[in-house]
Amino acid sequence: MKNKSISLAFAAALALTSAVVPAAAAPLKNIVLVHGAWVDASGWKPVYDILTKEGFNVTMVQEPETSFGADVTAARRVIDLQNGPVLLVGHSYGGSVITEAGVDPQVVGLVYVAAHAPDVGEDEGALGKKMPSVLARTPGAVEKTADGFTYLNPADFPKLFAPDLPRPQAEFTARSQVLAAADVFTTPLTAAAWKTKPSWGVVAGNDQIINPDLERWYYTRAKSHTTEIPGASHSVYVSHPKQVAAVIADAARSFGDAVSAAK
C-alpha cells in the first residue's frame, strides 16, 4: 500500500508539473494584408513572397472601394477564413479598414504601413486636413467621376504615389487604378482596434500622399512600435518590401507566447 501511495503521489506531481510548463512558443502564422485606395492587392506581392518564404500563411484582401462598409466587410470575410489568430496589416486607407475590422476577436494585432489610424467618430479626410500632404496641396491631383468615384490623375501618380518605383511600373499602376468612392475617406469610424490591441507602424519618410508627420502622430497616439524608413514614398510596401516584411514578421513573432498559451 505504501509503494502504491508513493506512485500515486508521484503521478499527481508529474501531472501538475506538466500542466504548468508552457508549450514551446511558436510564431503566429496567419497574416492578412489590406491594400489602400486607388490600388489593389497585387502591390503586396513582394512582401507576400518574403513572408511566405518565412513560413507565414499570408492572404490578401481585395476591397471593392465602393464604400467604407463594403471594404470593412471584405476584410472581415477574409479574417473569418483564417484558421487561428490573425495579424492584420493595412496600407494607407487600408489602415482605416483594419482599425474598424480589427476589433474582430480573431485579430490579435495590427500593423500600419504608411497608413491612417483614426479613432471612433473620426475620418481620415478630416484628419488629413490638419496636417496636409503634398497631394492635398497639388491642385487637380485628385479627380472625380460623374458618379462620385475618385482617382489620382495618372500624370501626377508617379511623382506623388510612387516616385521611388521604376517609371514604367509607376505608370502601369497609375493606369490600373481602382477608383474609390469619395465617401470612403469621410465615413466616421465606429470602432478603433488600436485602443485595445498592440500595433506597429511604418512611417514612409518621403510620403506625399499622407503627411509623414500625420503618420507619426497616429502611431504615437496608438502607442505603436514605430519604424521609419527614410526617403520611402507612399509605395513603401513595394519599394522597400524587405523592411516592411521585417516589421510584419517581427510583429507576428511577438505573439508566440500568447498564441501558444491560447491553444
UniProtKB/TrEMBL annotation:
PANTHER family: AB HYDROLASE-1 DOMAIN-CONTAINING PROTEIN-RELATED, ESTERASE_LIPASE_THIOESTERASE DOMAIN-CONTAINING PROTEIN. Residues 31-247 form the AB hydrolase-1 domain. This is Pimeloyl-ACP methyl ester carboxylesterase. It comes from Pseudoxanthobacter soli DSM 19599. Keywords: Signal. It comes from the Bacteria. The keyword Signal applies. Residues 1-23 form the signal peptide. InterPro entries: AB_hydrolase_1, AB_hydrolase_fold, Sec-Metab_Biosynth_Hydrolase.
